[in-house]
Specification:
The protein folds into two domains: about 40 residues; about 220 residues, MetI-like fold (Orthogonal Bundle). About 80% of the residues lie in helices and about 0% in strands. The protein contains 13 helices and no strands. The two termini are about 45 Å apart. It is found in: Cell membrane. Its main location: membrane.
Length: about 280
């Protein structure tokens, strides 16, 4: 009895330690975001006097200056265009590729899947110089469509990893029933597999969209025209301008405006995102 009671006390103490630790981690992660939010409503005098104090009033004109003093709207439009093209390319290429690698066994299929898995660890920054030279030789610099295709290519290994785990969890019985009804491989993919793999597809689309939306180094190198630059590059330029102009309120306001789309995407699809990561990770 004493041993069981002692074990329960130890387990309860461990749970409380874990809870306290998680609360501390949450506070450490959330505080910079909250500081960014209320700093976007502070005047320059308030920020320079005490950067960590709460604003005395809400300076909404910071958001107006953030838009006026930068190409923020143009940058947002460029980012939206690039993200949409990226998602279209992933849907057209990664989903059929993952389906073929999982369902059809042919010579080299396992090797191809392993290569895709290994490519997850290869970042574009590691091959930036040859990538730039190749894009320059193909006259694809300052080309938003080419950059979107490049982003999609960068996301292919992760997309195939998640989707292959999802597709393995789908029983073959559904495909066999569809074949009996006269469906071909393409129609089976569109009508049967993709609806059943919706959580995995949503997960891939959300993570790929956020990755393309926030990507900075490749966009900085590939897009030098200010009218074609994406939001992260535009924010970096705004930071350089506002830092010397000491308009910190406008800078923080621009950062908040840049966060809003990713927060909305996560809030809308968080259920599918969590489900997709769990199933894709377990079955992959």
């Amino acid at each position: 009895m004493k041993t069981n009671e002692q074990s329960r006390r130890q387990a309860a103490a461990l749970r409380w330690v874990v809870r306290i630790f998680m609360i501390l981690v949450t506070v450490i992660m959330i505080y910079p975001l909250l500081w960014n939010v209320y700093s976007s409503f502070k005047t320059n005098n308030e920020f320079l006097t005490n950067a960590f104090s709460l604003p005395k009033s809400l300076a909404w004109d910071n958001y107006a200056r953030a838009i006026e003093k930068s190409n923020l709207l143009s940058n947002v439009g460029n980012s939206v265009l690039i993200v949409l093209i990226t998602l279209c390319v992933i849907m057209v290429c990664a989903v059929p590729c993952a389906y073929c690698l999982v369902r059809y066994k042919f010579f080299g299929s396992r090797l191809m899947l392993n290569i895709y898995m290994a490519a997850i660890f290869i970042q574009a920054t590691f091959i930036m110089i040859p990538l730039f030279l190749q894009m320059n030789a193909l006259h694809l610099l300052n080309n938003r469509v080419a950059l979107a295709v490049l982003y999609a290519t960068m996301q292919f290994p992760f997309a195939i990893f998640v989707l292959s785990g999802f597709l393995r969890s789908i029983p073959r019985d559904y495909e066999e029933a569809a074949m009996i009804d006269g469906c071909g491989p393409f129609r089976i993919l569109i009508k049967v597999i993709m609806p059943m793999a919706k959580p995995g597809i949503v997960t891939v689309c959300m993570i790929s969209a956020m990755a393309a939306w926030n990507e900075y180094p490749v966009a900085l190198v590939m897009l030098t025209d200010p009218e074609k630059q994406t939001l992260p590059v535009g924010l970096a330029n705004l930071y350089e301008v506002q830092r010397y102009a000491t308009d910190w309120g406008a800078l923080f306001a621009a950062l908040i405006l840049a966060l809003i789309p990713t927060i909305i995407i996560f809030l809308i699809g968080q259920k599918q995102l969590i489900q997709g990561m769990n199933v894709g990770g377990l079955k992959g």
